[in-house]
């Protein structure tokens, strides 16, 4: 039969008398009482040991498959949970065994006159500490209850605010002072402020918050965070500037400095761009603020995304012919919109050539590099076929004849090579 040691200790401690003027326990009765207490202690120790081994065997034999995780991230595997439970059972058994041993020693010492004062002192110390712990726990309960209420209210407000900002982001709720693109970053800021306010409100109710040690640790942590987070705060403020300026959003085709591609993520700390080489480039928010940013998707609207192509042609070529060649090359390129129609501007009349710039439009900004490449190819073909030389900015003198590629040589020896290979 398993005898729980805690009720036994309580009963034994209740019988510890105050130091009498003359201890009235005969020696025989004291020996018998000490012997019975020893047998009970040994029985309790054996029962506790067997209970520990029994629970450990059942836990090891059980097919444990449960895991602890958050959103797919595993915090504790099944083997780790089993090991923690085994360690907890072992520690609990040792704690109960030590408590039983302390009670047994106290009881036995109080049964004999020479050791009575030692046993009484041990009993008083045990119950004094137990009383102190109980009073501390009882005193902390109201504060803990207040913390729970504060956290519950904060959680409720968080869900309410999250639902509101989600509705604004989806467009089901429209308000004049908040654009749907800014609903997501505003929600994150509001959530952070809510939990910061909850921490400030709950701090005085935390157990030990008024102690000097707790305050010292809090000040130390605050100083460490303030010294180590200056760069992080700067990055976060730059990220807020990028978000609230609405210069970028996820899915836009942009150029930031020398990086061009699709925005895949826009956070407070960085912006991620997927380039045409299928590389993900992470740009810190402070760099995004400093570098010039070109957003090809933002103003596309119903007119599409513009593709500019610049060529320099000598003054000996009629400008009307150049305009026609550029527009015809754009119309022959797949993906170029018919409306608005491509057009040409003469951007400069330089010393040796005229700078022409063709403007064509495409529907999808993400296809811009590939369509632009096809357009460059068609421009070269059109000018070569017409015998009009495309000049370089490093031009020095007119060559004896125009530098063009005849149509019969456009494909070089590709046809012959294919014929030989077949």
Please explain how this structure is put together.
The chain is α+β, with helices and mostly antiparallel strands. It folds into 4 domains: 5-114; 147-228; 252-295, SH3 type barrels (Roll); 305-421, Alpha-Beta Plaits (2-Layer Sandwich). 55% of the residues lie in helices and 15% in strands. It has 11 helices and 11 strands. Strands 6-5-4-3-7 form a 5-stranded antiparallel beta sheet. Strands 9-10-8-11 form a 4-stranded antiparallel beta sheet, with helices on one face. It has a two-stranded antiparallel ribbon with strand order 1-2. Helix 1 packs parallel to helix 3, helix 2 runs antiparallel to helix 3 and helix 9 packs across helix 10 (368-386).
